Amino acid sequence: MSADNICSWCNSTVESSLHVLRDCTDTGQLWGSVINTRYQRDFFNLRTIDDWISWNLKQGKKLEFQMNNGLFMVLCWNIWKRRNERIFEGKSRFNECIIAQAKGMMSCLERVQTKTSSINWYGNGIQNCDLRWKPSETSWVSLCVDGAFSMTMIRRAWEIRICQISRDANVAADHLAKQALDAWLGLHILSFPMESLGRCMDNTYTVNESRV
């Protein structure tokens, strides 16, 4: 929240999470344009953010609600992102832009789900992986990505293992991702590891080795 606790957009109300996501004037108009009028009274009258989120996730299963759970969550994310952009970057996005971007993201997610539903993930389901990154086995190549993969590569005639390494278990990769936020776009090749990365690597291996 901002330092003075007053909403930076309407400048008239204390800024709570529920105010940002639903009750601010511009945000309320956004929701009013995507939700069936039959449900709007309950939508806008729930008093706590926990009750509001729970109610929406239940209603999202109904076709007549006109907004499934995925779209609700993506809209909330975009609304919060708009708030941060306005405060920290001086940017602003219209409601129409927020809705279009959210629907575009949902469309992409649905296409990915459709394409991956027919893939046999190495026969017997997803394998459980170690809690941390480790060098690949002999004759294997490890490719670390941030949640993205190529369908063309997966369908090639080779054996593939896909596993998730949580952020907490790989603080070095998380540190590099955060450093990239302040870097110019393009390929960056580090001739030598940065000092802060070395400390992250030490912490990663120290913490995980203690669990064994």
What are the key terms here?
212 residues, mainly alpha, 9 helices, 50% helix, disordered C terminus
Quick synopsis:
The chain has helices at 17-23, 25-34, 40-45, 49-59, 69-88, 95-116, 151-154, 171-180, 195-209. The protein is mainly alpha-helical and 212 residues long.
Please describe what this structure looks like.
The protein has 212 residues and is mostly helical. It has a domain at 17-116. 50% of the residues lie in helices and 0% in strands. It is built from 9 helices and no strands. It has helices spanning 17-23, 25-34, 40-45, 49-59, 69-88, 95-116, 151-154, 171-180, 195-209.
Strand content: under 5%
Note the overall shape.
globular
Give the C-alpha Rg: 22 Å
Ends distance: 40 Å
Q: What share of residues is helical?
A: 40-55%
Please trace the helix and strand order, writing H or E for each element. HHHHHHHHH
Query: Uncertain runs with pLDDT below 50, 5 residues or more?
Result: 207-212
The computed structural class is mainly alpha
User: How many strands?
Assistant: 0
Q: How is the quaternary structure best described?
A: single chain
How would you state the average pLDDT, rounded?
A: 79
Largest sheet: none
Q: How many helices does DSSP assign? A: 9
